[in-house]
Amino acid sequence: MKRQVSLFGAVILGGLAVASILLGEEGGDPGSGSQTGPLASSSGVSSCAVPPAGAGRAFDVTEVVDGDTIVLDDRSEVRMVGIQAPKLPLGRRNFVEWPLAKEARDAAVDIASRREVVLWSGGSDEDRHGRRLAHTYVQDGQGGTIWFQGEMLRRGLARVYTFPDNRACVTALLAHEAVAREEGIGMWSLDTYRIINANELQRLNAREGSYELIEGRVREAKLINGRAYLNFGTNYRDDFTVTISPRDMKLFRDAGINPTDYEGRIVRARGWVRLFNGPSIDATHPEQIEILR
């Protein structure tokens, strides 16, 4: 089996709930037939579409940095938790701009620039860069609010992207993402961001260091020395694998998940691709394997 050392990455386990997003109704994803797993957030579509009571005071948005980052009137920077928009270089040397990064920023400007927002943190509220981490609700000027994360996903200009300490509203986030994907808009209209089949090894090997959505059948799921290996092929030295470290296994156990139960299931995994005995993803938390069949 593969014995990866790195522990970062993301794979998502949860259910897609797709029906009428605007009405907050949950239902099955007609495109994938995915199931709601035991790790789906208890916060459904409707409960995440509006800020919870006591979310706090409103702030003015003074700057939009990119498709998932804004600056407030108190000079704090807010990273929109739960999503990842295409990235701009933002002064980073040798950083290659992601396709649709400018379009994502333009959409963020359209949604939030010069408006008031209310913040709510469903997990850790600050990252290592000192940025606020929050679900962000934009006041629309008509007495209502726009959930920034949901709107960017609905426009197809962001993908769901969670962390072990920030997993709130996953069901709602995935639902919005699924709508845009089914419509083939934004990022989902480009080959760059399409879902990769686990058997497309040449493409996966070429995508090292990128964040990808990968679908396939788990051919074998084993625990070795406390680490889980979900193998998507018969040759573990070359085929795609998802691993779960002993340290991260606790989140799966707490959710009542035995990783060996994935064996035989067709799933959609997401995370950062690394190469070690073939392409792999290190799963740090379980909100994120969408069980398709």
Give a structural overview:
The structure is a single chain. The chain is built from six helices and 19 strands. It is α+β, with helices and mostly antiparallel strands and 293 residues long. The protein has a domain at 58-163: OB fold (Dihydrolipoamide Acetyltransferase, E2P). Strands 2-3-4-7-6 form a five-stranded mixed barrel. Helix 3 (148-154) packs parallel to helix 4 (170-183). The chain is globular. Residues 1-33 and 35-44 have low confidence and may be disordered.
Which descriptors would you attach to this protein?
28% strand, 19 strands, alpha+beta, disordered N terminus, 293 residues, five-stranded mixed β-barrel, single chain, OB fold (Dihydrolipoamide Acetyltransferase, E2P)
Flag low-confidence runs. 1-33, 35-44
What series of H and E elements makes up the topology?
EHEEEEHEEEHEHEHEEEEHEEEEE
Coarse structural class: alpha+beta
How is the largest sheet built, in terms of strand order? 2-3-4-7-6
Distance between the termini: 25 Å
The percent of residues in helical segments reads: 10-25%
Mean pLDDT: 86
- Summed up, the helix count is 6
Extended strand count: 19
Main β sheet profile: 5 strands, mixed, barrel
Shape: globular
Radius of gyration: 19 Å
Give a nutshell description of this structure.
This protein has 293 residues and is an alpha+beta fold. The chain contains 6 helices and 19 strands.
